[in-house]
Design the sequence.
């Protein structure tokens, strides 16, 4: 299926997000553009402080867009929008947060935590219907319905994150933003949570924006990846294409740092260090260009020609 045949559920166009006042203004996201197709898992990867979470929060309207626009299902959702559309965005775009310890209300029982969105949007016909929805959401993430009567502190980190996923699922969202959903979990639990997310995607036809700093996780769960460095996307491609043939020096550096399971290969491996000074953008600034179908790169004309030679 080529890009023309896929349905675009979300468009981010030239997004800019700033923090601070005029004197100490910090540009966290600078001129970022990408599309997310319906039914895919789109990955946004970069180091801490690269701006990836800021983008996720701009989509769900927590962070204000200083420039550019965000379009969800052909409707602009950034900037000033009417109350009805704001409610629709809150309902249709849900977020799984990084820290399952901090994102659940310690004083509320699981039943209320999962039902909060249902209460806010009156998304149930009767009390019995609400309880059924909570039960179904818990079963969907591999938890027992009787867990509804317990408090968050009675659960492990992995179970709490499942409760967080159930809280999102019960709203029947069309786009789920998963912000580092496994980085706070034990390594042994991570695969379980990823498997649940993959199974739910297939079963319910979900669309994910998956934000992480770990590329090995990205390879397992995403269809396409955008690599972000200091608020700018430097490369975007299908996941396997990016792993087999990374073009941008920053992408190559990130990939070279992935630990290898073979101890001999791990010893021999050479980690590439990315130096932003390798780009000469003074007189020839970079632009966002398609180097091959569905593979985009941030480069100036000279670099673009050099990068083309790296295509296999």
Sequence:
């Amino acid at each position: 299926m080529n890009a023309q045949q896929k349905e675009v559920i979300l468009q981010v166009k030239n997004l800019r997000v700033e923090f601070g006042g005029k004197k100490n203004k910090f540009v966290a996201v600078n001129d970022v553009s990408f599309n997310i197709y319906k039914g895919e898992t789109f990955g946004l990867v970069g180091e801490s402080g690269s701006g990836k979470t800021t983008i996720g929060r701009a989509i769900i309207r927590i962070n204000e867009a200083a420039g550019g626009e965000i379009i969800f299902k052909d409707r602009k959702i950034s900037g000033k929008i009417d109350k009805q559309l704001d409610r629709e965005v809150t309902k249709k775009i849900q977020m799984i947060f990084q820290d399952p310890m901090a994102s659940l209300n310690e004083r509320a029982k699981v039943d209320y935590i999962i039902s909060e969105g249902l209460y806010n949007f009156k998304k149930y016909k009767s009390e019995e219907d609400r309880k059924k929805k909570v039960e179904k959401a818990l079963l969907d993430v591999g938890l027992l319905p009787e867990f509804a009567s317990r408090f968050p502190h009675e659960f492990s980190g992995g179970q709490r994150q499942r409760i967080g996923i159930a809280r999102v699922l019960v709203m029947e969202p069309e786009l789920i933003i998963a912000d580092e959903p496994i980085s706070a979990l034990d390594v042994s639990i991570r695969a379980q949570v990823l498997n649940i997310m993959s199974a739910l995607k297939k079963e319910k036809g979900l669309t994910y924006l998956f934000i992480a700093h770990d590329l090995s996780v990205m390879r397992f769960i995403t269809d396409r990846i955008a690599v972000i460095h200091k608020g700018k996307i430097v490369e975007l491609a299908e996941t396997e294409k990016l792993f087999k043939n990374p073009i941008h020096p920053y992408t190559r550096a990130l990939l070279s740092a992935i630990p290898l399971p073979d101890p001999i290969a791990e010893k021999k491996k050479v980690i590439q260090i990315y130096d932003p000074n390798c780009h000469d953008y003074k007189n020839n600034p970079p632009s966002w260009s398609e180097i091959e179908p569905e593979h985009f790169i941030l480069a100036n004309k000279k670099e673009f020609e050099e990068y083309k030679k790296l295509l296999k």
Summary: The chain has eleven helices and twelve strands.
